[in-house]
């Protein structure tokens, strides 16, 4: 079996010929224990991904191949418990190290990560041009999102001030498209900000009122898939990503801040994740990033009890990089960002990559799990009652 013909790797010796790894014929009947509802990749998805790897047009490089190998082994055999190859058996030792580094990651999560990785590789090998100029950018479908590029900065602005920049389903899609375009354009830095007095009031709760033909279950399934795609874009975003938090932030607009590189906030901002009040659970990888950023008990106060933080508190907890007086916020922040955008863009990209790569697999696994749990939550009475309360004007945060 040759995955990348003519592509010798790891010192000129093909790993696959030494071990016949990734061969679909080798996939045993797994009898997997499926966790929760079907958000994690199925065995069929995994088998398809294993086949898809062979169709990749470009060699993804040794590092990625090793990752694929490790995830494949973890997904099919579980944690590495075979003896470590000897010092001089370089290739098998490298493979063993990669597999062993996955620790106790479950077979299901490994399978999901494998499928995600292959899907990202397939998408990037199909993308037509690495540098789409800003002028070619597909404009958002509605004016609720405004994307501009100037002075080396691409700015994605939430523009629904009358609704406190609450995120409609269309806006999630438009943000995904805007981030994908920004990742390939010529700008050095990408910024997310809001228009008006709010940064963002989180998910537009009326999204839950547009029930598709398949009812609540179908609505929850497609919302979970959208959430997962949306958060994946933040995990994978390759350039410095800065949040310019121009006012209060609620829900998902707060949780994804843990995936930004820098967060600047006006002193008028506040940070509120009222998931329990809404019968929901954390997303945006916050179940992982928040405890890491602020410690487990401060994170629990926010994520379980919905404690609202002031900008100063959020800065003290490490969620916000710096707080500015509201009167000078825009002037000071944009002057600083313009200066940063003149730094060598490749150096910034590479530095971000090296930081993010340590966490990427973990973040994707967390995102998959959070989306899966939320899919269930959205079908719960607790959640439905909270949304009905808001919509009937009985409840406000
Ligand atoms: C598919 C992916 C799903 C990802 C999962 C995400 C989860 C979350 O983000 S959970 C957080 C959801 N957000 C909320 O629960 C906030 C709800 N909004 C409020 O509590 C309040 O509106 C407020 C505290 C944000 C602002 O209060 P106030 O200053 O008094 O302003 P108004 O309430 O009068 O708001 C003006 C206008 O905007 C509408 N609106 C505000 N936020 C939302 C929202 N999140 N969803 C839908 N609509 C929202 C509000 O209803 C008002 O509308 P009109 O009455 O028509 O003027």
Automatic annotation (TrEMBL):
It comes from the Eukaryota. SUPFAM superfamilies: Acyl-CoA binding protein, ClpP/crotonase. GO terms for cellular component: mitochondrion; peroxisomal matrix. InterPro entries: Acyl-CoA-binding_prot_CS, Acyl-CoA-binding_protein, Acyl-CoA-binding_sf, ClpP/crotonase-like_dom_sf, ECH/Chromodomain_protein, Enoyl-CoA_hydra/iso, Enoyl-CoA_hydra_C, FERM/acyl-CoA-bd_prot_sf. PROSITE patterns: ACB_1, ACB_2. The keyword Zinc-finger does not apply. One of its GO terms (molecular function) is fatty-acyl-CoA binding. Its main location: other. Signal peptide: none annotated. Residues 42-127 form the ACB domain. Coiled coil: none annotated. This is Enoyl-CoA delta isomerase 2 isoform X1. The lineage of its organism: Eukaryota, Metazoa, Chordata, Craniata, Vertebrata.
């Amino acid at each position: 079996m040759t995955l990348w013909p003519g592509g010798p790797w790891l010192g000129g010796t093909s790993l696959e010929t030494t071990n016949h790894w990734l061969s679909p014929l080798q996939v045993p009947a797994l009898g997997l224990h499926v966790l929760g509802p079907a958000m994690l990749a199925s065995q069929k998805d995994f088998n398809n991904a294993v086949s898809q790897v062979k169709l990749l047009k470009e060699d993804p490089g040794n590092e990625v191949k090793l990752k694929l190998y490790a995830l494949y082994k973890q997904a099919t055999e579980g944690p590495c418990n075979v003896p470590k190859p000897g010092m001089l058996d370089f290739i098998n030792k490298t493979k063993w190290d990669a597999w062993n580094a996955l620790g106790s990651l479950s077979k299901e999560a490994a399978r999901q990560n494998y499928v995600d990785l292959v899907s990202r590789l397939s998408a990037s090998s199909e993308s037509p041009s690495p540098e789409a100029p800003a002028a070619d950018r597909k404009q958002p479908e509605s004016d609720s999102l405004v994307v501009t590029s100037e002075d080396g900065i691409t700015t994605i602005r939430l523009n629904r001030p009358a609704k406190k920049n609450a995120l409609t389903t269309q806006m999630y899609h438009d943000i995904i498209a805007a981030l994908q375009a920004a990742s390939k354009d010529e700008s050095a830095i990408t910024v997310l900000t809001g228009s008006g007095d709010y940064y963002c009031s989180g998910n537009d709760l009326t999204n839950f009122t547009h029930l598709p033909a398949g009812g609540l279950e179908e609505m929850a399934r497609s919302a979970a898939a959208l959430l997962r795609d949306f958060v994946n874009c933040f995990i994978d975003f390759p350039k410095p990503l800065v949040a310019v938090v121009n006012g209060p932030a609620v829900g998902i607009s707060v949780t994804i801040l843990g995936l930004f590189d820098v967060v600047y906030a006006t002193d008028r901002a506040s940070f509120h994740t009222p998931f329990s009040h809404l019968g929901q659970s954390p997303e945006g990888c916050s179940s992982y990033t928040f405890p890491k950023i602020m410690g487990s008990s401060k994170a629990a106060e926010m994520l379980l009890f919905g404690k609202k933080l002031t900008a100063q508190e959020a800065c003290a907890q490490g969620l916000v990089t710096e707080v500015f007086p509201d009167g000078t916020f825009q002037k000071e922040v944009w002057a600083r960002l313009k200066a940063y955008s003149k730094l060598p863009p490749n150096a910034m990209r590479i530095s971000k990559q090296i930081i993010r790569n340590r966490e990427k697999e973990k973040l994707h696994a967390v995102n998959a799990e959070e989306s899966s749990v939320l899919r269930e939550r959205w079908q719960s009475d607790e959640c439905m009652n909270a949304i009905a309360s808001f919509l009937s004007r009985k409840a406000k945060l």
